Amino acid sequence: MTEVNASAPADSLPHIAALLGGAFGNLRSAIQARSIPGLRPSHYRVMSLIPAEGIRLTELAERATITKAGIGQFMNYLEREGYVSFAGDPADKRAKIVTLTQQGRAAVDFSLHIIAATEERWAQALGAERYRELRQALFEIATTPGNRR
What is the pLDDT of residues 55-90, one digit of tens each? Predict the structure, then answer.
């Protein structure tokens, strides 16, 4: 990766996709370095979207912005590994509800701990105010209608 001078003018920095990719790559590396064998950062992300009461696979696919087939593959793998379980939806016999097992909740907690530690490092590097502004700006971009595909 190219070294970038922290005080370089904004217009001389790489494009935003490269910058966001670098930041995300930093986070992925932190997770992968301490990951539970057999789990990838994408597994943690999808499991973190499962509420305590469970969720229909179709709704989880929408939340994760993954196809229904893709979420099915993710969940089948996680079920075989003991991180999630399936139950029939009493309101719709065709639908399945997925919930985290105790092992799945522990994996999500583990990933959230790594994310929190990464955020602490970033806040120390940027300073509390700049980090708060970064989070706020990213939140606004992520939640503004029309910014999502």
Answer: 999 999 999 999 999 999 999 999 999 999 999 888
Report the C-alpha gap between 66 and 121 in whole angstroms: 30
- Amino acid (one-letter) located at 41: P
Give the Cα separation of 120 and 129 in Å (integer): 13
Helix axis angle for 41-48 and 57-64, nearest 10°, is: 120
Alpha helices in 3-147 (DSSP H): 16-33, 41-48, 57-64, 68-80, 102-126, 128-143
Beta bridge pairs of residue 88:
96
CB within 8 A of 104, min separation 6: which ones?
A: 47, 50, 78, 82, 83, 84
pTM value? 0.78
Tokens representing 20 are 């966001």
Tokens coding 40: 């990838």
The one-character DSSP state at 11 is G
